[in-house]
TrEMBL record:
PANTHER family: LEPRECAN 1, PROCOLLAGEN-PROLINE 3-DIOXYGENASE. This is procollagen-proline 3-dioxygenase. GO terms for molecular function: iron ion binding; L-ascorbic acid binding; procollagen-proline 3-dioxygenase activity. InterPro entries: Oxoglu/Fe-dep_dioxygenase_dom, P3H, Pro_4_hyd_alph, Pro_4_hyd_alph_FE2OG_OXY.
Amino acid sequence: MADSDHPRLILHGFLSPDVCKELEFIHKSCGTIGYRPNVFSTTLSHLIATNSPHLILPFLPLREKLKEKVEEFFGCEYELFIEFTGLISWTRGASIGWHSDDNRPYLKQRDYAAVCYLNSYGLDFGGGLFHFQDGEPTTFVPMVGDALIYTADSRNIHSVDEITEGERLTLTLWFSRDKSHDEDSKLISFLTKIPFNDSDTSSNGYLPLPASQNMYWFPPEESATYQSGFDIRCARLHVLGYQLYSTNATFLAAIHSTRESSDIILEPLRVVRGNYLFDYEFANILHLLQVVQFYHWKEPELKRSEVKLKPAKIVSISTSQQEGIQLLKLQLLKDQHLVETIFSSDNRGERLEHDWVSFSAIVDLWEAYTSKLWHNMVSGLPKWIANQSIFVDPNVE
Ligand SMILES: O=C(O)CCC(=O)C(=O)O
Ligand SMILES: [Fe+2]
């Protein structure tokens, strides 16, 4: 598998399927426009910036395990720092030609790369095969749970074929020997700016706060115009069969005026599916999207658990409400054809038979999941600050 001219390592089944699902949940509810066309990304600093710092916790054991593997394989124990951690997804049209990962002056600090595949070639996406220019293997077929580790220099020149369908998702890390590029110190400085108040978890301090609109607007071409393209959060809801309803009194007035309708989704929203409105107010679009994606992650588990469920509060939508829903959709998804081209693969909405009773239970389960992570993060933070390093605290469950 590896030779000294092309140092690389393949670990099959490195991540469990459930961890892959959890990271998929995070990416599909928190991801933003990426660094190349048709690419989406979720960085840890973005999670902190959108008041979801607790969502960095699921990454921590994986970062530690990967760093250990890299140091052990390349014989550089205790020498490396994590330079970057992120979830990166590629959709139809995305590709990358031959390159090494340190091939720009501002990337010279990168010594090693680790790419973990969170879904599978042939099943979740088409195209997207990984190739090494020299040495074995020449081609690597991404499969869920596998990790590919290699040096970031010219001994491992590689490329990725264009994605032809679906969404190819990875957890990607780069490692550096240069302490000045340690991701942890940067993240800790962001974390210390958040005004945590753990004493009262009922204060909903953990609700996500959207970043600026341009981070979520998918332009069909290079120019970031809002005249065409779509909002990726609404697009992700749309392909799963959900729509938005705003109770905002100024909503209809706003939508007919020049006011950016993007502002409306930063305010309380309700969710609609088919002819029903779910009678629950979400704080904003990210809150709603997190709950919907959580539903798609956890619903099969909930079905198996035989938990006794309460009836859901839903109401039929009126014709005038339907009008408002359509108008908002037109504002946020200017190019629905493009939405389908980019995210159509996400037909989990069709595979999963929607059930409002389960959905209603998921709202509470999302809250329990979130507040537990939030509490754990707040408990770990003083130690992270003291050590200037983010790590799994063995005393916290
Ligand atoms: O996702 C992959 O398989 C590799 C991506 C890559 O080469 C890069 O981001 O530099
Ligand atoms: Fe690369």
